[in-house]
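Example 3.2
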Amino acid sequence: MTPFGQVSLPADVVSYARRGELRFLTCGSVDDGKSTLIGRLIADASGLLEDQAKALQEDSRRFGTCHGSIGNNGSAEDGAIDFALLLDGLEAEREQGITLDVAYRFFATARRAFVVADAPGHQQYTRNMVTGASNAELAVLLVDARKGLLEQTRRHAAIVSLLGIRHLVLAVNKIDLVDFAELRFRDIEDAFTAFAAPLGFTSVVAIPLSARHGDNVASLSNRMPWYQGPALVEHLEAVETNLDAAERPFRFPVQWVNRPDSDFRGFAGTVASGQVAVGDRVVAEASGRLAEVARIVTFDGDLPVASVGRSVTLVFKDEIDLGRGDLLADPRNRPTVARRVAADLVWMDDMPALPGKRHLLKIGAATVAATITRIVDTLDVESLRRVVGQPLLPNGIARVEIETATPIAFDPYCDNSGTGAFILIDPATGATVAAGMAAASLDRATNVHHQPEDVTPAIREGAKGQRAMVVWLTGLPGSGKSTIANAVERKLLALGRQTMLLDGDNLRQGLNADLGFDTASRTENVRRVGEVAKLMADAGLIVLVALVSPFRADRARAASLLPGGRFLEVFVDTPVEICRLRDPKGLYAKAARGKIANVTGRDQPYEPPESPDLVLRTLELDPAQAADLVIAKVLEQ
């Protein structure tokens, strides 16, 4: 399953798409009749071929809930077949009578073409529902007239609103089972209107219908003379969603570098929004470099202009360094570039979200390391209230704060869903754990963009004749980090290497003098040191860091700032009892007398590395031996 994927129309229906197809989603609680409604829509709008009718009649006999015959015109007569079986293609679905995955179908009337996604109703398949909603322009939310609004009904309404769907049809289904009662319909309509008021829908149209019998689906039913609104098909044919991605700023995520030979170099991808023409200047957000489009290449030949949805290869007049994941944009209307992002998440994992746990964030074609730093609040789907202090549970919705290892380029999802949608991936399993919608940058400097530099880190490194990297020594206070780091630097200098030592105590006398020793301050301390270490590595130096850095998530964030193989985590492994006996700076003694607080190993926990690049057991090694092991590790990189 890939949230925020694209569903392509078959080649033989492109003529319909040119007349303006509508992508819509059917959703709601389980057994509200979603699959039956879509089956009825397909049958009534397009009719069934003879072989389809026979196959459906046989399936209805084996799996369905009703039996009968197929009409002479190839359409289904009332009570003849189970229309849900047109969509429930999985054997498990047919046997259980439920929808497990999102089913996409195409049908068309004389006025419009449609792509419809049938989303499962069970709460445990909320993740599948998000998949179907991600490309929809309208949602048909079904409600069983007997049951009224359920928790999953409210959940789906909240999700479609969160995903930017502004048009909704409240389909009050199975109205025949309440004797076509107007009062029951009005009660449900009023209850939903009150509930949905904060969700910001542009239009909500309530329609009473019976999907099984076709009442108010393709045409108005004479069994509900009190209803004066449109039939469902009539409304779907006429609704204007006004979602024109072509009018948005140009965005082009690079999917791969197209280089079949030494004479051709282009960048392939799909135009996510806006358009681009030969001669246009675009900017690569990661580097800030500008380039002029020389050619727009397709399999069928060059184009003068490429608009949203078109897959092309862009060739530039001048050389520009791009790779998969880079985003090309209009330099006059650029996306946001930030490392700290506020976002809405639909949590899909079976376990609750854990702040501080490392994930992979995939946005467009880019994948970066990321951490949920804070769960701001969760959404109560019953009341639509934001609740502070609650965990983010499976199928829950929350506003969170995320920090990425490197800056990402995005647009707020409400402005451009194509560049504001992302997913979070568990790096251990590869499973998608959340679908996200970027809301805003949390970085204070939001009006700055990367300034390109002619002298790159690789050039600086080459000029020094060494492999730049960061060697990060972590361990308890008194473990010997500073002593070993000093010895390493002396020996590297004797070997002709250029180095810089960043010691935690020294930095707290200047750069980090404003920070305390509480958890938040320690995290900020590591963040600042990590950024400084990266800058020095970019200068071509071998950077030695001696820092307690007690939390794994903080060290992982620092490691993610550098390319693979350029960050060595060295665990100076000394038992806490030995550290207390050594106590070279008197920290443990002062803490015991109550003079200082928040000493790691006494008042605060220390999280040892789970898979360090090197472990130095100081009970077995003297400082010179430990330094030699570090130097050997550095030189083998």
